[in-house]
Amino acid sequence: MPTPIITLDHVTRTFSVKRQTITAVDDVNLSIREGEIICLVGESGCGKTTTGKMIAGVLPASAGRILYLGADISKLTGTERKKFRLGVQMIHQDPYASLNPAHTISAIIAAPLRHHGFTQGETQTQQRVRKLLETVDLTPPDDFLDKYPHQLSGGQRQRVSVARALTVAPSFLVADEAVSMVDVSIRISLLNMLSKLKDAMGLSVLFITHDLALAKYFAWEGRIGVMYLGRLVELSPARWLVEHPQHPYTQVLLSAIPEADPEATRHKKRIELRSMDVPSLLRLPTGCSFHPRCPQFLGEVCEQVTPALVESDGAMVACHRVTRPAPRATEL
Amino acid sequence: MQPILSIQNLSIEYRARRGRVRAIRNVSFDVQRGEAVALIGESGSGKTTLGLGIVQLLPGTARVTQGRAIYRRSRDGAPSEIDTLQLKGRALREFRWKECAMVFQSALNALNPVLRISDQFADTAQAHGYLQGRALHARAEELLKLVRLDPDRVWRSFPHELSGGMRQRVLIALSLLLEPQLLILDEPTTALDILTQRNIMDVLKDLRHKLDFSLLFISHDLALAAELTDRVATVYAGKIVELASVETTFKEPAHPYTIGLINAVPTLKGTKEDLSSIPGSPPDLVEMPAGCKFHPRCPLVESRCKEEEPELVEVKPGHQTACWNWRSAREALQTHKVQG
Amino acid sequence: MNALQDTLARTGRETLKTLKLLTRNKMGLFGFVMTILIILLSFGGPLVWPPEASANVEDINLGISAKHWLGTDFQGQDNLRKVINGGKDIVTVAFLTGILATLLGVIVGSVSAFLGGRVDSLLMELVNIWLTIPKFPLLAVTATVVKLNDPVTLSLLMAFLDWPSLSRQIRSQVLSLKQRDYIEAAMMLDLGTRNIIFSELLPNMMSFITISMIGIMTFAIYQQTSLVFLGIVPYSSANWGVMISAAERRGVLFNPQAAWSILVPMGAIVLFQLALISFARSLDEVFNPRLRTTV
After folding, report:
1. End-of-domain residue from the set A243, A277, A295
2. Which of A202, A225, C31, C103 is the most exposed place for a label (fewest CB within 10 A)?
3. A220 contacts in B (CB within 8 Å)?
4. Least confident of A86-90, A218-222, C58-62, C240-244
5. Mutate which of A82, A100, A162 to test chain C, going by most C C-beta atoms within 10 A?
6. Which chains touch B (3+ CB pairs under 8 A)?
7. Distance, in angstroms, between B274 CA and closest chain C CA?
8. Strand ranges in B74-171 using DSSP code E only, listed in sequence order
């Protein structure tokens, strides 16, 4: 088996807030193959963005190792470090904050090209900038070169962000809620562009989103990981996860999503939680952190033992219910 | 029975540095008593402006250039009509809470951070000469229970001690304090997580069932509109381009924009082939294209679309659309996933 | 060679664009032209109209006339000529103090924000203490020890006293800008610290920095004229402060006829400050693309 492009090996990230420690990401293991698409899904505070930032190398892990092509990224130096640094790029959520308002589009895209000497001379740089704009479907490029970010729509700005990331020919993209602030009608075209790039350049993509339907669509051939309070609770091929969710949390999430079909959404079976209160990250529940809300709560074992992520029916699931099947079958 | 709210030929503009932003252009529609109407559209379509206009909360740069918003009062004796756009001072304040309450997008910041929830209720009640003391407490308790909050826990809390979803529910409870007949909700769940959103949606459905108010629901999220409302008005470039019952809107949409919007939203059940984006981006409201404002993005565009703007026409009773090609649109752009 | 030509062409284009931008806002254009005019008159004027060497007993305290456009003072010297000759010190001190204090403030503020931790706490503690010192009295006391009649020494001292509040503001600006996604993107693109500071951070702070600098400049003008007016700094040259002070001492306040000799230097100060402040507005357009281009 080839070396995965990114491996998370028992990665944990804590933050100290007012002398207290919160665990944003807790003992996550994950391998991402070259050319693979993985979506991380979860609610706010589940640690999906922190995981993305650690992989992108802008936030160090507190414990555990992150490997880029087999090498620990915290120990890289010289050309190896540079290879990783340029090899992994990120697309931010907010298209209004991710481009420097003081620069024109052409300056934004040309800066990395010039700095790293990827192009020689102004003519070549300009040619490359145009080419990149065409790659992200901003055509004709001349319409965009001298514009400032605030003159573009959210969708166009996200395309510029992608073009900027592509200047350094990365092999891995972290896209953090990259379409959530873009108009509904053009989200799909952005995702299609990313898919196209992935196929053309052999990119791997970690796509972070709160929208399971979007994740299923984007990670069609890839996998979806569901996070809850810092832990990966289910990891499975995208369509399989949506059609056969095994973790109670995944099941609850799927049942909660409204659908754009009046008939279906009104008669959809909703799974009730045991409690609506989201536990504070400062005082995580013992054992399985979902147990206070879990509709399939088993009792003592859930309160005391943290379930490991184990293989079950074509997926990886961290739930005692799954490893220790109860007489009552899971519903949905 | 007459509709509770009739928007008649309403136009609203903003003055901006580069010219007039025509946010709402000659819009008319009714909200029946007890009915929930959704205004769906993308950002910049003008749907929020419309909501703000009805309760006169538009920013200073905005101006109502024409039209009326007739609200039909039913309590306190004989029914009477008022144009909400003409209300001033005391009459306006009374209208805003007693007849029509609103919960807006930025609602998470709408509670005063230094007041306990109990004081927020007391302030609102006092400002309108409503119940006081124990009676108020009883009424508030009832409302908080209706929005599935634990009154004992919430009543003495400060807003920062509550989660986003709880604050949103407090606001909904507060907005219902003076028993308004019409509720305007503008993206009430936008910043919230899936499970919190589910909770608010369930609360809203429940409230409609129990309290029987009329609802104007403003959102970009088609699925929420599908779940909560009876009729859907699709707004594009400041105009209603389609108006139909919720079933019709999702099963037999006639306007290419509505069809495009439905096709652009991924669903859990759908397949990859069902999805497609609408090309281009929403129009610039200052320099709008001639003719139908959707024509630059429309797959069915013809020469007529570029010259003449279509008005709403009847497709069948209760279903109107503003498109020259409505007869062929649905077949030409057939959607796979809403076949039933 | 090619690269040089490229750079030159680009610089040329940029300069032209900047000049065009400076003229977009009417108020700003006024400020820009006025500032240039005041600088030119203050430095070039004395060469054409050198100061009068002696008093003119017949022309004491005259009002405006064709001969004396702005009247004369208690020595019968022409107010216009005096005001032209008295600008150099003020303009020098204003610009020097502004530039030095801004530099200090920007450097301390950004270093503090960038390094964080101990250095940050230490520097900010120092700044806090500095801010509590009453500056003008300190300046007045210092003036009795150090000879302040040289504009450069005076500027150095004032700059040294004036930077702390700016450094605090710069620090918070940098701290907030550092969090922006585009800075993170630049770090991921490995654009280098120098590049990130000079081409990602600074351009977004430039309008704030120039406006602060102009604030410091106007403050410096007040401080300098006040020092002279209070007699703490000797009358070494004929600057606007000296003119006001001299006029006041000669009892202008009780002699309506002599009003021009105090109104003229005051007017000059007001005009200079007004020019600077309006100029700041134009500069804002240059640095903030949002203001000049519409969606």
Report:
1. A243
2. A202
3. 272
4. C58-62
5. A100
6. A, C
7. 34
8. 80-83, 100-103
Per-residue pLDDT of A66-122, as tens digits, reads 999 999 999 999 999 999 999 999 999 998 899 999 899 999 999 999 999 999 888
Which of C186, C200, C295 has its CB closest to that of A151? C295
Domain that holds residue A330: 244-332
Answer yes or no: do A32 and A97 share one domain. Answer: yes
Q: Which residues of C touch A116 (CB under 8 A)?
A: 190
A203 and A329 housed in the same domain: no
CB contact under 8 A, B197 and A155: no
Q: A323 and A184 in one domain?
A: no
Q: Are C75 and C85 in contact (CB under 8 A)?
A: no
Res. B337: pLDDT tops 50: no
Residue A330 pLDDT exceeds 80? no
Dihedral angle, C-alpha B82, B85, B86, B88, nearest 10 °: 100
Min distance A143 CA to chain B CA atoms (Å): 14
Taking residues B48-55, report their average pLDDT.
Answer: 91
Res C24 pLDDT > 90: no
Instruction: Please check whether residues A188 and A310 belong to one and the same domain.
Output: no
Produce one character per residue of A118-155: b if its CB has 16 or more CB atoms within 10 Å, e if not.
ebeebeebbebbbebbebbbbeebeebbebbbebbbbb
Q: Do A260 and B163 touch (CB under 8 A)?
A: no
* Alpha-carbon dihedral sign for residues A155, A161, A166, A167: positive
Chain A residue numbers with beta carbons less than 8 Å from the beta carbon of C287 are 102
Which of C6, C184, C199 is nearest residue A111 as measured by Cβ atoms?
A: C199
Domain B5-229: give its CATH architecture.
3-Layer(aba) Sandwich (3.40)
- Under 8 Å CB pairs connecting chains A and B tally to 121
Alpha-helical (H) ranges within A167-236 are: 184-201, 212-218
What pLDDT is attached to residue C6?
Answer: 66
Q: Chain C closest CA to B20's CA: distance in Å?
A: 13
Residues A87 and A183 in one domain: yes
Domain with CATH 3.40.50.300 in chain B: 5-229
d(CA B277, CA B288): 21
| pLDDT tens for each residue of C182-225 | 999 999 999 988 888 888 888 888 888 888 898 898 888 888 88
Q: Name the domain boundary from A243, A271, A294.
A: A243
Q: Look at chain A and report how many structural domains it folds into.
A: 2
Beta carbons of B281 and A153 less than 8 Å apart: yes
- C64-292: which CATH architecture? Orthogonal Bundle (1.10)
> Could you tell me if A175 and A263 lie in one domain?
no
Is there a domain that residue A109 lies in? no
**Which of A292, A87, B267, A99 lies closest to C189, judged by CA?**
A87
Interface check for C295 against chain B (CB to CB < 8 A): the answer is yes
The amino acid present at B111, given as its one-letter code, is: L
Question: Model confidence at C4, in pLDDT bands (50, 70, 90)?
Answer: low
Q: Do A150 and C295 touch (CB under 8 A)?
A: yes
Taking CA atoms, what residue in A is nearest to B205?
A266
Given a cut of 60, whether residue C114 has pLDDT beyond it is yes
User: Chain A: which residues have CB within 8 Å of chain C?
Assistant: 56-58, 82, 85-86, 88-90, 92-94, 97-103, 111-112, 115-116, 121-122, 148, 150-151, 161, 164-165, 167-168
Cβ–Cβ of B194/A261 closer than 8 Å? no
Letter string b/e over residues B105-124, b meaning 16 or more CB atoms within 10 A of that residue's CB: bebeebbeeeebbbebbbeb
pLDDT band at B209, cuts 50/70/90? confident
Looking at this predicted complex, what is its ipTM? Answer: 0.86
Listed in order, strand segments (DSSP E) in chain C are none
Best CA proximity match to A58, nearest among C120, C180, C170: C180
Residue in B142, B147, B140 with CA at minimum distance from that of residue B201: B147
Nearest beta carbon to residue A184 from set B193, B264, B269: B264
Query: Would the CB atoms of B223 and A186 count as touching at under 8 Å?
Result: no
The arrangement of strands across the sheet holding A20-32 comes to A20-32, A6-17, A63-68, A71-72
